């Protein structure tokens, strides 16, 4: 296992893990709360549609919201009870906005629907397994909550050779994956086999950071007992952000996910270890995703620990089960201190994507920074795991040269916060980059809009030109047929009349306009004399506006 | 319960500008000690004058620019500029010269461009270049090193010499003033004397030049410590020194009668100070890894060119200023490959 060749990614930082507090305490099962709340919005995007109504009785594991869209997995009730309301409630989201939620009052009986597992999953096709995963409501449990079935489907159009299970929990404070691997190593390993079968891939690399000894021991023990030769356990150094998908892929395989690409482009699919366990539960036991392990930690909470908690449990309930807040509780962060976000209230439900509830004590975390000017020391560039030049991005972002910032690969920033952490001037770089990305997107939209308007205008112009041409064409054709049908004497008479009129007009203009003396004869008569003009005659004089033949002055 | 919110990341940064500036000043101590040992305490008096002038200049400019003075003074960047300039000046230079140079560096070199982080040129070198051009006589009047004279001026004597231009009775300024080895080399070579002849002179010995080699050792030591602390990028001193060494070696091998040894170049004049403390000023240097190598090497190259064929005995200040000018362009063409883009 230690002979496995590892690669390095550029940059990264060593962070104080702060994992002892929550990691040392045993995993506890959270109590059944009185109320469960399920936001209909799971990721940024559309809400899923409720399939229950207020007053309905629901069972544990029953789907309460579904959608035809495969990107929106269903939501299941995590205990039995009665739907009390479907209403606007605050969401656990950085925006702090509210959204439509299903609120269930639990009955304490915890009656479940009948789950039918499928231990013989090897007979199933990958597509069937993906449907199974989708119907179990499984999303990535590492924090991004991307629908797992969609990620697995990326393997259908590309050849995937490697499945990576991400157990590199690189953010400080968080120990939920450590706890999961320690207590549910078999579920994770079995889940890996299901995922491998569904991807039709040959090998699975299970990455665990080298500061997780309990998890490593448990995994090794489980691997010795079972048949897991397709799964390889790899210890990776505890450098932040090794647990980032792109960074982990680089560390394990030396390959890089192409810019704007996905891991499947280079034959890799990456899943969180918690997701693998959820897949095992869904496929073999038939239980949908209704609970997860969450770390409750920080100096602001009395007994930091990991809880196996039901999705939908109010955060305040979870904190209460960890002894409640200490007197110095100051901030509430969902996720880690580097890439998490803080929320103004604990009156929020646990969702599938929340891996950590960090209640910070006094001075444990910082708030608004007091930045000094950038001294261009380049510490940010040395720390950037993507090899960007944050000092240049900052410079361009600040001076509103968004195009230049984009040229310097603004959109490849993964917002990991390494640059912020090492910046001696205490500049909130990530905040600047988020804002710059927003501006760039707004500008792009603006440009697209004006481009669209331009195209519309041009096509309208083209259409009008074409219509005009068509009109002229048909007029010409008409004239031609008309001219051919007229008797020659009529044509002659018309021409004579024209000539006369033109001569008269010519005299008139000479009399009225002394400066026109030296001008040549008006073009009218000469036009008549020309042979092909004769053929085009009668109609054209009136119908089309060929000004040479008939200047407006003349009339 | 309700909580205040801010934007991630929430871990406190591990470094600060003041810490960097102070650490660099600590790293200057070995070189400064060598200067005091070899050339007397005059340099300490110069440091004091420069520090006071820099603080006054900085405070005045900040108040003119309507910025709070205390936070900026606390970043110690002006203090670093002051000390870097002070250690470059002849130890007994008159006080007004030091004060003028420092004020020029802070006011024109730094604040007129927008203050810390916005100055395109290294302020200390701006001050030095202005003094060298404006007062060449004062700027070339160095002292003989202790290795040669056997004694060096104490603090009190240096103080009176700098402020009232009077010396202890047995000494005169004319007797004290002495050209540096690089200066001597330039003048003597100009008189068509051979290098062998020149180097029999008392100023030349060992690997470099008397007195100066110790000063260079001091700055090298401090510089290596900075490298170890990760406060300066290795590419700049490595590029600087290897380019200077390589150029000196090539020409030494071609014509040893005219070109001194590479080691002489490395341990004379402001080489080590320049390589570790001047060229590495983050604000004015290149900031990409490859760019820093090019930037450092170009300075080393120019130092050799100016020393060998230019109009000044040492070329560090001008080489640095010229490359300051080129740094943005170098940065533009040396962007590193971002993750996920083709090699």
Automatic annotation (TrEMBL), chain A:
Domain 4Fe-4S ferredoxin-type: 363-394, 402-433
Subcellular location: Cell inner membrane
Organism, scientific name: Methylocaldum marinum
Cofactor details (free text): Binds 2 [4Fe-4S] clusters per subunit.
Segments of skewed composition (Basic and acidic residues): 445-475
PANTHER family linked to this entry: ION-TRANSLOCATING OXIDOREDUCTASE COMPLEX SUBUNIT C (PTHR43034)
Topology versus the membrane: Peripheral membrane protein
Protein name: Ion-translocating oxidoreductase complex subunit C
From TrEMBL, chain B:
Cofactor: FMN
One CC-aspect GO term: plasma membrane
Alphabetic keyword roster: Cell inner membrane, Cell membrane, Electron transport, Flavoprotein, FMN, Membrane, Phosphoprotein, Translocase, Transmembrane, Transmembrane helix, Transport
EC number: 7.-.-.-
Transmembrane segments: 20-37, 43-61, 73-89, 234-254, 260-280, 292-310
Membrane topology, from the record: Multi-pass membrane protein
Organism superkingdom: Bacteria
Modified residues (FMN phosphoryl threonine): 180
InterPro entries to which the protein is assigned, alphabetical: NqrB/RnfD, RnfD_bac
Coiled coil: none
Enzyme class: translocase
One GO-annotated biological process of the protein: electron transport chain
Pfam families assigned to the protein according to its UniProt record, in alphabetical order: NQR2_RnfD_RnfE
Protein localization: Cell inner membrane
Known function: Part of a membrane-bound complex that couples electron transfer with translocation of ions across the membrane.
Family named by the database record: Belongs to the NqrB/RnfD family.
Quaternary context: The complex is composed of six subunits: RnfA, RnfB, RnfC, RnfD, RnfE and RnfG.
Protein name: Ion-translocating oxidoreductase complex subunit D
Organism listed in the record: Methylocaldum marinum
């Amino acid at each position: 296992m230690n002979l496995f060749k590892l690669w390095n990614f550029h940059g990264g930082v060593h962070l104080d893990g702060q994992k002892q507090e929550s990691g040392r305490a045993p995993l506890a099962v959270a109590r059944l709360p009185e109320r469960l709340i399920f936001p209909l919005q799971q990721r940024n995007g559309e809400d899923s549609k409720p399939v229950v109504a207020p007053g309905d009785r629901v069972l544990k594991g029953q789907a309460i919201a579904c959608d035809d869209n495969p990107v929106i997995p269903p939501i299941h009730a995590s205990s039995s009870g009665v739907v009390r309301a479907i209403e606007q409630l605050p969401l656990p989201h950085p925006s702090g906005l509210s959204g439509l939620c299903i609120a269930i009052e639990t009955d304490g009986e915890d009656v479940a629907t009948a789950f039918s597992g499928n231990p013989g999953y090897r007979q199933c096709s990958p597509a069937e397994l993906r449907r199974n995963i989708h119907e179990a409501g499984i999303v990535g449990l590492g924090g991004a909550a991307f629908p797992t079935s969609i990620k697995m489907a990326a393997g259908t159009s590309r050849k995937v050779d490697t499945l990576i299970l991400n157990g590199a929990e690189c953010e400080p404070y968080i120990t939920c994956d450590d706890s999961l691997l320690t207590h549910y190593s078999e579920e994770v390993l079995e889940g890996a086999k299901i995922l491998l079968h569904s991807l039709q891939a040959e090998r699975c690399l299970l990455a665990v950071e080298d500061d997780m000894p309990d998890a490593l021991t448990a995994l090794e023990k489980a691997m010795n007992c079972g048949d897991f030769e397709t799964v390889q356990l790899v210890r990776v150094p505890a450098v932040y952000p090794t647990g980032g998908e792109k960074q982990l892929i680089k560390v394990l395989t030396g390959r890089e996910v192409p810019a704007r690409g996905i891991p499947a482009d280079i034959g890799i699919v990456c899943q969180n270890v918690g997701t693998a366990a959820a897949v095992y539960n869904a496929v073999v036991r038939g239980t949908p995703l209704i609970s997860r392990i969450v770390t409750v930690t920080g100096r602001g909470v009395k007994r930091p620990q990991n809880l196996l908690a039901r999705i939908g449990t109010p955060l305040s309930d979870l904190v209460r089960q960890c002894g409640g807040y200490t007197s110095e509780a100051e901030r509430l962060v969902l996720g880690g201190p580097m890439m998490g976000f803080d929320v103004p209230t604990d009156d929020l439900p646990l969702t599938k994507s929340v891996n950590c509830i960090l209640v910070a004590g006094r001075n444990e975390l910082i708030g608004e920074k007091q930045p000094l000017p950038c001294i261009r020391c380049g510490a940010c560039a040395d720390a950037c795991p993507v090899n960007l030049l944050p000092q240049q991005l900052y410079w361009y972002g600040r001076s509103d040269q968004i195009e230049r910032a984009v040229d310097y690969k603004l959109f490849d920033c993964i917002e990991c916060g390494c640059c912020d952490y090492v910046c001696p001037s205490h500049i909130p770089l990530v905040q600047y980059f988020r804002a710059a990305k927003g501006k760039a997107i707004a500008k792009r939209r603006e440009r697209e809009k004006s481009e669209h308007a331009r195209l519309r205008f041009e096509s309208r112009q083209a259409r009008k030109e074409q219509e005009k041409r068509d009109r002229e064409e048909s007029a010409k054709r008409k004239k031609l047929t008309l001219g051919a049908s007229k008797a020659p004497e009529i044509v002659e008479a018309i021409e004579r009349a024209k000539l006369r009129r033109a001569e008269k007009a010519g005299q008139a203009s000479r009399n009225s306009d002394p400066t026109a003396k030296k001008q040549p004869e008006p073009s009218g008569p000469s036009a008549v004399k020309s042979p092909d003009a004769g053929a085009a005659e009668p109609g054209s004089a009136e119908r089309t506006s060929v000004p040479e033949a008939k200047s407006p002055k003349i009339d | 319960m309700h909580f205040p919110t801010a934007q991630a990341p929430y871990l406190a940064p591990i470094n600060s500008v003041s810490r960097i500036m102070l650490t660099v000043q600590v790293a200057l101590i070995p070189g400064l000690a060598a200067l005091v040992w070899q050339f007397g305490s005059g340099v300490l008096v110069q440091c004091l004058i420069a520090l006071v002038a820099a603080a006054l200049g900085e405070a005045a400019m900040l108040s003119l620019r309507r910025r709070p003075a205390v936070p900026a003074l606390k970043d110690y960047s002006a203090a670093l500029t002051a000390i870097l300039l002070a250690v470059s000046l002849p130890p007994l230079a008159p006080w007004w010269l030091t004060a003028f140079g420092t004020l020029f560096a802070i006011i024109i070199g730094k604040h007129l461009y927008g203050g810390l982080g916005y100055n395109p040129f290294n302020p200390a070198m701006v001050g030095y270049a202005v003094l060298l051009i404006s007062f060449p006589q004062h700027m070339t009047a160095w002292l003989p090193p202790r290795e040669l004279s056997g004694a060096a001026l104490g603090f009190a004597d240096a103080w009176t010499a700098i402020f009232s231009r009077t010396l202890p009775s047995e000494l005169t300024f004319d007797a004290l003033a002495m050209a540096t080895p690089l200066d001597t080399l330039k003048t003597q070579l100009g008189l068509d004397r051979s290098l062998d002849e020149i180097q029999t002179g008392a100023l030349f010995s060992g690997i470099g030049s008397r007195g100066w080699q110790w000063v260079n050792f001091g700055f090298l030591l401090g510089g290596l410590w900075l490298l170890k602390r990760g406060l300066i990028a290795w590419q700049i001193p490595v590029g600087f020194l290897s380019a200077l060494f390589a150029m000196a070696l090539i020409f030494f091998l071609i014509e040893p009668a005219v070109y001194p040894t590479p080691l002489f170049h490395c341990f004379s004049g402001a080489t080590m100070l320049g390589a570790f403390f001047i060229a590495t000023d983050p604000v004015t240097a290149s900031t990409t890894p490859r760019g820093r190598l090019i930037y450092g090497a170009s300075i080393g190259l120019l130092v050799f060119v100016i020393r060998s064929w230019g109009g000044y005995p040492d070329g560090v200040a001008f080489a640095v200023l010229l490359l300051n000018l080129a740094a943005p362009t170098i940065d533009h063409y040396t962007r590193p490959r971002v993750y996920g883009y083709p090699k």
